[in-house]
Structures are given as structure tokens and as C-alpha cells.
Amino acid sequence: PVLVVDYGAQYAQLIARRVREADSYSEVVPASSTVAELLERDPAAIILSGGPASVYAEGAPLVEADLFEAGVPVLGICYGFQAMAKALGGDVARTGLREYGGTDAALEPVEETAEGPSSVLLDGQPTTQSVWMSHGDAVRSAPPGFTVTASTPGAPVAAFEDHARRLYGVQWHPEVKHSTFGQQVIENFLRGADVPADWTTAGVIEEQVERIRAQVGDARVVCGLSGGVDSAVAAALVHRAVGDQLTCVFVDHGLLRAGEAEQVERDYVEATGIDLVVVDAEETFLGALAGLTDPEEKRKAIGREFIRAFEGAAADLVAKAGEEGAEVRFLVQGTLYPDVVESGGALHGGTSSTATIKSHHNVGGLPDDLQFELVEPLRTLFKDEVRAVGAELGLPEAMVWRQPFPGPGLGIRIIGEVTRERLETLRTADAVVREELTEAGLDRSIWQCPVVLLADVRSVGVQGDGRTYGHPVVLRPVSSDDAMTADWSRLPYDLLARISTRVTNEVDGVNRVVLDVTSKPPGTIEWE
Ligand code: XMP
To answer: Organism's domain of life (predicted)?
Structure first.
């Protein structure tokens, strides 16, 4: 693999993604990894990420000079660049500034030298280009053996390279999209380092199928489908590997949007041939939600009922398998690589963890503890890779490209008590909004657009000849990269007008459409 050493501040994951976009496999490893630990992984190349620290700060993660003597190509980025300079005897000027935001700078490549091409990293790129740079310490002189290959007005040593040892460093962030030729810098490094470009979707599928077969053997497997892309792709992979040993459970809690349950029940099953058990739990969920208005209480009730419904179905499967002399031993989870990195987990060492789904008193005939081993076929993948795998496995487009939708569904988009009638109102309004956004071609450019029903608010309106006293719905279109922060999407006025006209005409009980123009923070994306 290409190992990306994580010096913090979320750059490492982005770098790992860019490496994969360049068709090479990458993994993020913690800054605390020793040189021996890094080399044990037999890396094709190593990238040292940016990070918020100053190399002069107390306790700042430093790079041991041994790393550069192992014959492994290394690219240092920003903090990694400075740490590299310091370790190899360059001069890093202390500015006392930490990294704050970034600025665009024009890169000025340094003259070609007599020894050959002046730059591996910048090969084939325009002599001046825009790069995203953050303020921190600055490298004042390159270590011995290195050539300075780029500079900016603020950073005279903005890149250095030692072609013989295949060691490289850049002060700017090639992994962010603001750096116009950033992806090319990363590709130039990888290809210059002879890292194979062999990370393909077909290869991922093949490898995972083999792993799943090895892990599962003849045992049976259960998987909960949520309607979202992760669980759908995870299940499809497991099905590709072990076929009918897999049974999927879909809990229809009645809080889904129009057409979603059908999408899972019909389109997904048709595309995959998966054995699906649908639990129709709408009544149960509505019963549990009756009288609740507090967001946390609603969420808790939905979560509780969900586990209950799922484990009931799982217990039935376990019992049925038992009668047939088989054993349900595994549970599929759609865990993605960012979750693994963020929870500090490692991909290697340790095979699988065990999830215990506790039983409840009200489910008859259930064993005290249902214990499953986890199958997590997406554990090494980023979201865009999961989508590519899903598409290659032939899943319906609408499922592969589905925007995020919260587990508690429409239950947290009705402000007030959730009732069947209110769900119907919101479902109709939501369907109109989604139809118009799709029609306008915006599905892939906006992150998501919750539609919220203010069920306890009424306002006076006039429609036809009469006075109305109806409810408002809120449009919450947002743009985001990861849902941690978001901005409200500037939808075209004509589109908003069309949505407003259609929703007030077509949805009984709704006489007003309002637009939420709050970013996150301070507002969350969902209203509850
Ligand atoms: P917030 O409202 O916290 O939402 O800004 C961030 C993102 O997470 C989604 N979301 C959820 N997803 N279960 C989920 O699977 C949940 O309980 C949940 N709550 C919020 C939300 O749609 C947005 O994409």
C-alpha cells in the first residue's frame, strides 16, 4: 500500500482518497507509527500529511531520519514537508504561526538544472499555477542533496526534490481541489515512485468476495437493509460471495419517503436476487411515537423499536436455520473506511469484532443473547468507491446515488407529534420537491434537501375563493462535503417558485413554503 501518515487536521484521509483516485491503494496510519512499523507494511511509497502543529511545538510529531534511508519513496506535504526538512538537516524558520485556513499562491518553478529534468512533481504542468497554501513555519533552505523546484512569494522554498533517493516535499496542499494541478502532483509522485496503478473497482470486488468466502464458510449471514447505499452495497457484495447463505432484513418503519420501501423490495431484489424479509412495522412505530413531541424522545423511540424489530426478525431466522441444522453466525455491517480511521481502528491485526444484539423480554422465544460476528466488506472503502462498487454490481442508479437520509426518517422532519396523516402530508410534499430537484438536474450537486413539516404551526392563507389555515413546509437545501459543516444551497428562484406553486396546489393542508437560509453551524441540517 501507499501509507499516508496522519499528522492531524483531516488532511490524511483526503490524501488517501486522492491516491486511490490515481488508482493506487492507500491506507492512513497514525503519526505515532514507528519507522519499523511503517516498513513492516512493505509500503510502495509513504506520504507525510499536513497537520496543525509547528515542528517547533512541544510534543510535535517528528519524523525519524531513518525513514528516508529505507529506499522507500517519500512525499512530504505541508507539515510533513517541514518535518522532513528538519529531519534531514534543512532549515525551518520559526514563524510562530499555526495553520489557519489557506490562501492561493502562484507557484514559480525554479530554473531547470544541468542534472536533468528540474521536477518530477511538476512535470508536464504550467510554469505558474495556483496552489492552496496555509500559513505556518517556512522552510528557509532545503536539506543537503535536494534541489528547490518551486517557490512562491511567501515561501522561497515551496518544493524540494531529491531524485536519486526519490524524496519529495511540497509546502502547499496538492490534495485540496483549490490546488489546480494538485492531483497531477500526486500522480507524478506515485508514477515516479513506480507505485502500480492497479486499484480498480473490479479488483476490489474480487478481493472482497474472496475474503468474505474465507470468513463465512458455510455459515448463514444476516444483513439489515436501511434503504441507503452502504448497507445495499455491503449486502450485494456478500450475496455475490455466498449467495443464498445471506438473508436481508428490511424494517419498514413507515417513516420512509414515497417509493423508498418499494425501491428496496422490488428494484433491489430484482437487481440482486437477494433473499429479503420485510418487516412491516409501521403500526408499531406509530404507536411508539404517539404523544411524543420532544426530538430526543422521538429519536430514542425510533431507535428502540428499530432494534426490537430487527432482532425479532433475526431471531426468527436463527430459529429457522436451527431447524434446518444450520447456523446464522454473521451480521453484515456497512462500515466505511472513514469510520475505521476516525475510531482509531486498524485494518490489520485482529480479524473481526463481535456485536451483541441484546434480546428484549417482549419477543417470545428469543435466546438470551444473539451473538454475531461482523462481516464488514466496505471497511477499506471511501464513499465514492462504495458507489462505484454498487454500480458495477448492477444496483439501481437511484440507490447507488441516493443522497443521505437519516435513519429516523420523516419522523424527525415533522416538528411535533408524528401521525399517519402528517406523514402522508410530508411524504407528498417531499415527493414534489424531489421531483423538481431531479428535473432541474441538481441531485448530484446538492448534498441533500430535507423537507420539514411544521405540524404545530398554522398560518392564514387564501386559495381559490376561500380562507385557509394550513401548515408551512420548510425547504432545507444544503451543500456540503461531509455533513460536518454545510451551507444553504442557492437554488434558482424560478425553481423555488415552481416548487412553491406545486406544493401549495398539490399538498392538502399546506399553504405556505419557506426557505431555510441557515448554514451549519449554527443550524444542523435536520431540524430535529
Ligand atoms: P445534522 O442534522 O446533524 O445531520 O446536521 C448531519 C447528517 O446526518 C444525517 N442524520 C442522520 N443519519 N441517522 C442517520 O443515519 C440519524 O439519526 C441522523 N440524523 C441526522 C442528516 O440527514 C445529515 O446528512
So the answer is: Bacteria
Tell whether ligand 1 has an atom less than 6 A from the beta carbon of residue 300. Answer: no
**DSSP state letter for 205:** H
Q: What is the mean pLDDT of residues 404-409?
A: 94
Q: What is the pLDDT of residues 132-183, one digit of tens each?
A: 887 678 899 999 999 999 888 778 899 999 999 999 999 999 999 888 999 9
Question: Peptide bond preceding 521: is omega within 30 degrees of 0, i.e. cis?
Answer: yes
Q: In this structure, what C-alpha cell is assigned to residue 345? A: 481502528
ipTM of the complex: 0.99
Q: Is 226 annotated as a binding residue?
A: yes
Owner of C-alpha cell 425510533: 302
CA 500 to chain CA centroid, nearest Å: 32
Q: Is 376 a catalytic residue?
A: no
Q: Which is the catalytic residue, given 78, 223, 248, 449?
A: 78
Q: What's 410-515's CATH class?
A: alpha beta
Q: Up-side HSE of residue 449: CA atoms within 13 Å toward CB?
A: 27
Stretch among 14-28, 105-119, 228-242, 313-327 having the lowest mean pLDDT: 105-119
The topology under which CATH files domain 2-192 is Rossmann fold (3.40.50)
Q: Which helix (H) or strand (E) holds 501?
A: helix 493-506
Give the pLDDT confidence score for residue 219 in this predicted structure: 96
CATH superfamily for 201-400 is: HUPs (3.40.50.620)
Q: Say what the pLDDT of residue 54 is.
A: 83
Tell me if residue 278 falls in helix, strand or coil: strand
Cα–Cα distance measured from residue 61 to residue 45, given in angstroms and rounded to the nearest whole number: 20
Number of H helices and number of E strands within the chain? 15, 24
231 marked ligand binding residue: yes
Amino acid letter, residue 283: E
Task: Say how far apart CA 362 and CA 284 lie, in whole Å.
Answer: 13
Q: Is the CB of 523 under 6 A from ligand 1?
A: no
Tell me the C-alpha to C-alpha distance, in Å, between residue 279 and each of 248, 251, 276, 310, 372.
Answer: 11, 5, 10, 8, 20
Q: In 3D, which of 120, 109, 118 has the Cα closest to residue 74?
A: 120
Is 359 annotated as ligand-binding? no
Question: What's the Cα-to-Cα distance from 501 to each of 436, 515, 523, rounded to whole Å?
Answer: 11, 14, 26
Can you tell me the distance from the alpha carbon of 476 to that of 526, in angstroms, rounded to the nearest whole number?
Answer: 8
Residue 494 has pLDDT above 70, yes or no: yes
Give me the residue spans of the domains in the chain.
2-192, 201-400, 410-515
Mean pLDDT of the region 261-266: 92
Does 360 score more than 50 pLDDT?
Answer: no
2-192 and 201-400 share one fold: yes
Mean pLDDT of 472-487: 93
pLDDT at 471 > cutoff 90:
yes
Asked if 330 and 374 count as a contact pair (C-beta separation under 8 A), the reply is yes
Å from CA of 275 to ligand 1 middle: 29
Report pLDDT for 91.
Answer: 93
Q: Give the model's confidence band at 266: pLDDT under 50 very low, under 70 low, under 90 confident, else very high.
A: very high
Residue nearest to atom 20 of ligand 1 (CA): 406
